[in-house]
Here is the input.
Amino acid sequence: MGGVMLSLLLLLLTPGRGLEFRYHDTIEVEEYLLFINKTYPNITHLYSIGQSVQGRELWVLALGSSPRRHVLGIPEFKYIANMHGNEVVGRVMLLQLIDHLVQGYYSNEPLSSRLLNSTRIHILPSMNPDGFEASDTNCVYSLGRFNQNGVDLNRNFPDSFSGRRRQQQPIQEVRREVEVQAVMDWLKTETFVLSANLHGGALVASYPYDNSNGGRELVGGASVSPDNDVFVHLAKAYSYNHGSMHRGDSCHISKPFTDGITNGYQWYPLPGGMQDYNYIWAQCLELTLELSCCKYPPVNQLPSIWQQNRAALLAFIKQVHLGVKGRVFDSSGIPVQNAMVEVSGRRNLCPFRTNQHGEYYRLLLPGNHTFTVTFPGHQAVTETLNVPYGPDLYSAFTHNFLLPAQPTASPVHTSTPPCNHTPHWMPLDGGGPTKRPLWVGLSLVLGLGMWLTSLLY
Ligand SMILES: *[C@@H]1O[C@H](CO)[C@@H](O)[C@H](O)[C@H]1NC(C)=O
Ligand SMILES: *[C@@H]1O[C@H](CO)[C@@H](O)[C@H](O)[C@H]1NC(C)=O
Ligand SMILES: *[C@@H]1O[C@H](CO)[C@@H](O)[C@H](O)[C@H]1NC(C)=O
Ligand SMILES: *[C@@H]1O[C@H](CO)[C@@H](O)[C@H](O)[C@H]1NC(C)=O
Ligand SMILES: [Zn+2]
Here is the structure.
């Protein structure tokens, strides 16, 4: 075993210089992750969230000062790459990031140490290893985007916006791919707070929503979420810490991106995407980061691409400390699961709720925010909090809520139903049969555009 590890070390690491810059295949990535897990047991923990269609493990490396389990008040963060198997830069970046964090922690480099002390970071270097193994090295179009069943994984998540205008027909059940199901199950195991999904073929930070059904969220061609201010801030945190993304280079594929960021829908509508699912149903704010114009750049460009992204990848993790965190307790001091924690002016499609430890995390920009916390059988509590800028302190502002018991003898519900996963479907204003042809026509045009752009990023 020691001999195997030593030869591995020689295979993967350039002595004194860290992880080699090249495209490690699935077996090499697995060996590297096993090596890291074995070498740094105090700050890393390797686990699998499932297998790909062809049976490759979907390995996740957790990093932090308590890598094996959640600690109260320590937010859970994640990075996912290579969901499109032929978009390979993110996968390289995440392996480099792992190397940087573990080396940094043990050489007392302040940023890495503080991040690992204050955050639990989960890294899935490849969500689509089958696609990666099937890819060719084309910059634009290539094999390997889809999983082994030919499905685009970033169109395969449940979509809150899709459905029918009227309830005449049941919503079609989409067959969930195993890689998508693995991520959906993973989201239930931790209270993820912030996440990014790394892609390639463009250079931009894209944020929710990616989809719309023509309801009130549609504003000026963008599909605007209740946390839009936070998403814009998060996207800029990436683009402005990146070597060039903020300049808005479009890679000659579209209009320049102001500040190097875009609303997902405004760029092109996308049903069944992972970022909307994370945000709407897992209360995890997720961005889609497009890291390079070329999806599969030559190996000799990898060091400079890492230089461009390193500070941004670290700065983005720090943003998990925005806003407010804390716990909700009932009148007898017991933490309450499933309490609704709502912030005034933000009508989330699924309200944010406390986890099994009674914890909540709300990413918010600095300023005064009014919270209302509700739980059946208890009086609602409303409090206004003056929220500082948490990232610089490596901690969100901590505030606990205490719920007084309901004084009247009103019926006591023992649990609140979780957000049901039925599609959210708002009729168009003044909608009716007369507007249908226009809507169908629009859908066709949008559909064609979507099909064309869907092959790109
Ligand atoms: C990671 O390392 C720990 C501690 O050495 C070990 O118990 C565990 O089995 C390793 N995980 C994997 C997936 O090999
Ligand atoms: C890991 O933690 C143990 C127990 O706290 C400690 O003795 C050991 O030195 C640590 N290892 C490293 C590499 O820091
Ligand atoms: C991180 O935590 C360890 C253990 O508690 C501590 O020794 C170290 O000083 C901390 N590092 C930073 C940068 O806060
Ligand atoms: C927030 O409220 C406090 C106390 O009421 C007030 O002093 C402060 O100016 C407010 N801050 C902002 C940004 O409105
Ligand atoms: Zn992509």
User: Anything to note?
Assistant: The first helix runs from residue 2 to 12. The longest strand covers residues 44-51. The pocket of zinc ion (ligand 5) is lined by residues 84, 87, 199, 457 (CB under 6 Å).
